[in-house]
Amino acid sequence: MTVAEDRTTVLKLLGLSENYIMSYEGNGAKVADFRPWLSTSLSIVFARPELSLVIWEADKLSMECQAVLLKPMEELMDKINLVLVVQNENRLSPTILSRGVVQNFKTLAETTDLYWSEVRKCWSSGPSACIAYVDQIGKDQGIPMIEEVIKKLKTGLITEVNKKRLAVLDLALVALYESKETNQNQKLSLDNFLIESWRMIKG
Hints:
Blueprint: E1 2-3, H1 7-14, E2 21-25, H2 31-47, E3 52-56, H3 63-76, E4 82-86, H4 94-98, E5 103-104, H5 107-110, H6 116-125, H7 127-137, H8 142-159, H9 163-181, H10 186-202
Parallel strand pairs: 1-4, 1-5, 2-3, 3-4
Helix pairs in contact: 2-3, 6-7, 6-10, 7-10, 8-9, 9-10
C-alpha cells in the first residue's frame, strides 16, 4: 500500500513500468465490475510474475469492494505484486491494512529545501561550520530546520536504507524532542545534533 499523489512518481519509486502493470480505478468502482477484473487480473499476473496489479485511489473503494480483496491478499501476497495507492490509508479497512505494508510517498511533495542544502554543507565542512550555522539561523528557525532534516532523511529511506542514515535520523528525532519537550538549551541540542551527525557521516 502506498500513500502518494503523483502516479508517475509512485511507479518510479516502486520500480514499476506502465507497460508492466494492470491497473484499476478505485473511485466509483462497483463490485459487479471489480470482482471479475480482480479474478481475471490475478490469473494473468500469477502466470506472468513480471506484471503487477495497481489499484489507484484504493481508499475510495466501497467496503464491499474492499471485502473482495481480502482473500486474494491473504492467499497470494507472496506470489503477486499488488499495490493499493491511496491518499489516506485510514479509509482502508483495518483487515486490509493488516495484510499489507504501508509506504508513505506523500512527503516527497511536501518537503521544502530551506535548510537541507546548508545542513549538508555543515556535514562536509565540520564542527565549526555546524556551530556557525546554528548561530546564524536563530532560535525561531531551529525547530523548522530539524523538522525539514527529518523529512529529508525519511524520504531518502524510501529508495535506500542504510545504517548511517537511520542513525542520523535517530539523532535528529532526539534533537527535535529536546527542543520541543524539554528545558534543554535549543542551541546546544542543535549544535550537538549537527556535530554528532557529522562524526557519524565521516566515520
